[in-house]
Amino acid sequence: MTPSPTDIPWAAVVALAGLTAGTVRARRRLRTLPVLDPLAPTNGTFPSGEWHLITARGVDVDAATLRAAVAHAERAGLQVVDLIPGRLDTERALSLLRLLDRSAARYDRTADGRGAGHALLVAEDVLRRSGIDNGTGTAREPAELHTLLGRLKEYAPAGTGVAIAPGLTVPPPDPSRRGAELRAQGLPTGLLTIAQLAGLGLLVRAAVADGGWGAAAAALYWLQPALVLGGPQRPLRPADLVGATAARPFKSLASAVRTAADERSGSGAATAELEALRPVYAAELKAGTDRFFEPRRPDCPWCGSTELSVRIRVPDLLQGKPGRFTLEQCGDCGHVFQNPRLSLDGLDFYYRDFYEGLGVSGAAQVFGTMGRSYRARAAMLQPFGTPTAWLDVGTGHGHFCDSARDVWPGTRFDGLDMSPAVREAEVRGWVAAAHQGQFPELATGLVDRYDTVSMFHYLEHTREPLAELDAAAAVLPPGGHLIIELPDPESRLSRVLGPHWLPWFQPQHQHLIPIGNLRKALESRGFTVLAEEHGAAHQSCDFVGAVLLTANRLAPHPYAPWGEGTATRRKRVVRAAVHTAALPCFAVAAGLDAARAAVARRTEGGNAYRLLARKTPEAG
Question: Are the C-beta atoms of 399 and 110 separated by less than 8 Å?
């Protein structure tokens, strides 16, 4: 008799499928990693003037390994190489294989730079531009090397990779420093601990209650280290593999407990950073938040109509800063805008510590996951011409410009942004030249210098989007191209999810523009629309974003420097409970987002749109 769907232990089946996929993925990634051959012929001795070696405490790099590493870097065209010890311990080896980019032999431009934290080979030019002190003779901790790798990759985005060094001698791992190493890699140790403990609990429950499926899942988990790292031809040979495999559940439990304890002790530095900002925010909030808003306007900033209605009212669900924000919609043209809008002081207050300061690492991680989207944006121009000089307006840290070189290697990419980050992008080499300031104010000096201008998720942040379009029309010569990408306020999910629809992005988004309005505005400025993309521009974030915003609303950060300043036990417990309960919700939301993205690609109806226009010769 065939079992009904309700008789199938789906939790155990899903766990088994996930473990199988993870095991196969780890084995494949291990096979792709290059292995240094110390016996291979090289061009000579280690060129100390061109390359530098940075090592952790107790790590010994012999001359043969050093020569082999330099030869590999020069042969592969790399500027930064993280050397993975051939005897790396089992726990760190498995963790590394989970974290490594698919192409870690040479990382993707936007991928996180993550390695083993033992030894780094760095080209002189990269070390000089990054401003990092080589620190010859300085004993560094592995956590510091993880931080250095992330920093160095920013200055060699297309020239960073990893390689296994069988002869690299390293000291035994220090379990007490594991939490610090995870934090240095930008990983949320608290959530990782919760997920690890929840996973162990699920496996125990499956093994006891789900018969063969549960036993198979538990057995695969137990044997996974040997399945991934065992065998005579494996390039990684942990000395503790047999013992780590035999005691895996117990070692995992001990590791999770240690990381949880370390998370509590390691949170002191982060809390101190927040507390240092508290007096600054307290002084700003002493007079209330009214001064952060301009008077409400009675008409639509796009068409002038007075037929306005409230679309949503929502607090700051991103950072949890005080204030409440209203988006109104024009009944005639459909334009959605913040009303009352933020004043200049308000913009400064609500943007602070989001992309820079406290939020810099989180923003960098988000932008670093968008490599495929950046390349798709650049490729939209391929059927219509070859760009020579491209200005990306609102470039931020320059992630798009850096990635777009894979599509247009012969194009010069410059960036414009209000943030000082654009200057850092120039130092990194992500943009050829940086322009810092407001686009309309700088436009006069940029006339006819670029044949392509892009604005990716930029117009919605501006106070006067029509003035930004005027600036683009002034800068571009006849035949020049303008590419714009924006969230789509006509998306169906904007009404289904209401204030928890992430692209509302309050309080930062000032204007959400229907594509018909943008099309007409461009045509009136002498542009011809060549192409539109909807499904291809969709960002897979609707449901995951809704879970995130809901969790933030239910349990805001108890230590936020703009908050009350009292992280009571109750608040900490509530936040931990909410985020624990949110974990399965995030998993379900990720699945819904994947399905939504597939539908969006087929139906051309996503949460964003992309538009390409050409300035007509008559307009010149």
Answer: yes
> What's residue 620's pLDDT?
43
Question: Which conformational region is residue 189 in: left (phi greater than 0), alpha (psi within -120 to 50 degrees), or beta?
Answer: alpha
Assign 328 to helix, strand or coil. Answer: strand
> Does residue 518 or residue 563 have the better pLDDT?
518
CA distance 425 to 447: 22
Confidence of residue 262 (pLDDT cuts 50, 70, 90): low
List beta partners, residue 163. 83
Any idea where the domains of the chain sit in the sequence?
30-179, 290-351
Higher pLDDT, 135 or 380: 380
Query: Quick check: 434 pLDDT over 70?
Result: yes
465 to 401, 429, 607: CA distances (angstroms): 22, 29, 20
Average pLDDT, the chain: 90
CA–CA gap between residue 229 and residue 620 (Å, rounded): 64
Which DSSP letter does residue 233 get? T
| Residues 516, 417: Cα–Cα separation, whole Å | 27
Lowest-pLDDT choice from 146-150, 268-272, 567-571 = 268-272
In this structure, the strands spanning 412-417 and 434-436 are parallel
| Alpha helices for 325-443 (secondary structure H) | 344-351, 360-368, 371-379, 399-404, 421-428, 439-442
Mean pLDDT across 603-608:
89
Parallel, antiparallel, or unpaired for β 412-417 and 324-330?
unpaired
Side-by-side strand order, sheet with 308-315: 308-315, 324-330, 336-338, 511-512
Residue located via tokens 């029309």 = 473
Q: Pseudo-torsion of CA 170, 176, 180, 183, nearest 10°?
A: 110
The whole-angstrom separation of Cα 509 and Cα 521 is 19
Whole-number Cα distances in Å, 568 to 8, 260, 320, 571: 43, 19, 17, 5
CATH architecture label of 290-351: Single Sheet (2.20)
Could you give the dihedral angle defined by the CA atoms of residues 186, 191, 195 and 196, in that order, rounded to the nearest 10 degrees? 60
Task: Please choose, from the candidates 449, 444, 445, 419, the residue with its C-alpha nearest in 3D space to the C-alpha of residue 432.
Answer: 449
534 phi-psi bin (left φ>0, alpha ψ -120 to 50, beta other): alpha
CA separation, residue 372 to residues 66, 155, 381, 386, 403 (Å): 35, 20, 15, 20, 9
Query: Which segments within 12-77 are labelled E, that is strand?
Result: 51-55
Q: How far apart are CA 56 and CA 66, in angstroms?
A: 15
pTM for the model stands at 0.87
Cβ distance 565 to 278 under 8 Å? yes
**pLDDT, mean of residues 40-47:** 56
Tell me which residue of 159, 50, 160, 156 sits closest to 428, measured CA to CA. Answer: 156
297-325 confidence digits (pLDDT tens): 999 999 999 999 999 999 999 999 999 99
Q: Which residue has the tokens 């300031």?
A: 437
Q: How far is Cα 347 from Cα 436, in angstroms, rounded to an integer? A: 17
Across the beta sheet with 481-487, what order do the strands follow? 434-436, 412-417, 389-393, 452-456, 481-487, 608-615, 527-533
pLDDT at 42: 60
